[in-house]
Specification:
The structure is a homodimer of 196-residue chains. Chain A has 196 residues and is of the alpha+beta class. Chain A folds into three domains: 1-33; 34-86, no CATH class; 87-182, K homology (KH) domain (GMP Synthetase, Chain A, domain 3, 2-Layer Sandwich), CATH 3.30.300.20. Chain A contains five helices and eight strands. The first copy, chain A, has helices spanning 5-9, 16-28, 89-111, 158-170, 173-180; strands at residues 34-45, 48-53, 57-58, 61-62, 70-74, 116-128, 145-154, 183-192. In chain A, helix 3 (89-111) crosses helix 5. At the A-B interface, helix 2, strand 1, strand 2, strand 5 and helix 3 of A face helix 2, strand 1, strand 2, strand 5 and helix 3 of B. Chains A, B: This is OsmC family protein. Chains A, B: It holds the Pfam family OsmC.
């Protein structure tokens, strides 16, 4: 198979020269690597709520390239007394780990000159509701295990393809947070009914 | 203000009798509290990938109430060499924490007979890309801090409203996973190019 220089530039849909230029730039000006991502959420009704994702800070400035917010609905399914207007929050965690690893797989493969034919993954998370329902507070609220299974096909050996997934895992922001946890600060501004 | 029994049943859009009946049922048959959530993701091109969320196991059976999958696109923004077809994986984490806490706030308030007027939150996450780009592997890949700020208005005192948020935080599955981490297993099935 012949690969033209244009194909090479856009290996796996990744603009490899721009990827390497970005890496070089951040290596030289490390403050450009500092990012702040943001979201705002509004309660709709019951367990239904909606998040808007738009601006973020990164590469030394407020990003102005997004012309509209991404809108994400979350709800509980009927069996959890919701109306199923969107995935539950815990399902979004499973999406986040698959998406983060797959972001990385495409980039790592492109940087290594490996053409991918297919990447697909399934994610399962086991969770008991006994803790979060307050029935047995000795049971943790969150997932006790998350399993991600990747199928990866590409123009490389099985060993090279697996190494791409492992490198992505080693560098994944979501994998890091889900396995090691992070500092989460919650603060509250409450506006009571003034007549009380 | 008069509250009819119908309003009371659907306090904050939460069907309170069904919520309490669900709690009672799981308390009596604790195996019903065992859930498995799932997602499947397909790489599209570059950092763009797409997750499908549909079936899950819970309350003793495979759930059959969802008639279509929820579809979630993830991508990197332009500054991170993507095409911005969706939020990044790390932005989905911010959505997940806001959504999970807000799911809980509506339920806890309803269970306590507190009518909510408004719940809104903003989330910020600070992250350095130096680790994930391989420029400084001493820097963690994930968020070093996530901050959630809630505005809550309702028919209760400020203290009662704040207590609703804190109870939701104490029982939140996503808060637990993001602060404590969990076990994440990644396995790979690689299909190499057979001609190599």
């Amino acid at each position: 198979m012949t690969t033209t220089s244009q194909d090479r530039a856009a290996m796996n849909g990744v603009d490899v020269p721009v990827l390497f230029a970005t890496l070089d730039l951040v290596r030289e000006q490390q403050e450009l690597g500092e990012f702040q991502f943001r979201a705002r959420n509004e309660w709709v009704s019951g367990t239904h709520n909606r998040t808007f994702v738009d601006g973020f800070y990164g590469a030394g400035q407020e990003d102005a390239t997004r012309d509209r917010p991404f809108v994400l609905d979350a709800d509980h399914p009927a069996v959890l007394v919701g109306q199923d207007h969107g995935p539950t929050a815990v399902e979004y965690l499973l999406h986040a780990i698959a998406a983060c690893l797959t972001h990385g797989i495409a980039n790592v493969a492109a940087a290594r000159g490996i053409e991918l034919h297919r990447v697909a993954s399934t994610v399962e998370g086991d969770i008991s509701l006994l803790g979060m329902l307050g029935i047995d507070t000795g049971v943790r609220n969150g997932y006790r295990q998350i399993r991600v299974h990747f199928e990866i096909e590409g123009d490389a050996t099985a060993e090279q393809l697996e190494a791409v997934v492992r490198r992505s895992q080693d560098r994944s922001a979501v994998y890091d947070v889900l396995t090691h946890g992070t500092d989460v600060v919650v603060d509250v501004h409450a506006s009571p009914d003034e007549t009380r």
